[in-house]
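Progress report, Aim 2. The chain analyzed during this reporting quarter is listed below.
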Amino acid sequence: NVASGRVVMGWFRFTERGTAFGLRQAAVPLGGAVAAVSLPALVAVTDPRYGPLALGLACIVAAGACAIWLRDPPVHGERVRGWGPLRDRRVYRLAGGSALLVALQAAVIGFTVLFLHGVRGVPEVGAGVVLAAIQVIGLVLRVIAGRWSDRLRRRIAPLRWTALTIAAAWVVAPLLFGAPLVLLVPVLLTAGSLSFAWNGLSFNAAAELAEPGRSGTAIAVQQTALFGMAAVVSPAFGWLVEATSWQGAFLIMAVGPLAAWWLLRPLQAEEADRVALGSAT
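Predicted structure tokens for the chain:
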């Protein structure tokens, strides 16, 4: 994740990076969508061991593609030294806001199929298709959000607006968990896909907070926060469901995007100043 983000920073101009990061991040839910549809079907007709084997083969194909097509960007300036982004409070604020957003996204990825199959009686393959559709729509939204940020010449402002939209969607969606599937599924598709729209914006913002040559470190801090939160969410969300209900658990998780919207507010003003001064290049 870190290396590919640094490549994007090196190869694309400021007014192109939003779209480039959106495309890079769109690849993640695309892979998730392919897995959500193909792995259950593969295991159903073969053997459970073939699921991990298929994932391993996919990694080998990805490594071959990188060897053929991926090239380091040209290096400008001297090699940087020191702590850099590790001492930048803005990077940690962004990482915290991103972690609050990824918590809900992790719940969607980990528990949508379980809810639809175990609670609403949707067949496993059908529930997997719903999760795949959420991720496909989400990857489109990532590209759109990235292009939008290029036009605005901002990353934090669209990130905060997206966070607010996600919070609103997940306040409404749990209220319809008992509705007929013909109503519930479109609501889940909308709220779930919105939960995927912000990643490219956050990735891009982290890279641009760092001085030239240190974007990899800033991205690493942000990505560490995301994976750390995702690791916590799975057991925590399961406990919330047992302690409250499916509706209650998702309503509680909707607080995360709202808190992210508030936490990122100082960065929005700071980014506006940086762009006005022409420091974002």
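The first helix runs from residue 2 to 11. DSSP finds twelve helices and no strands in the chain. These observations will guide the mutagenesis work planned for the next reporting period.
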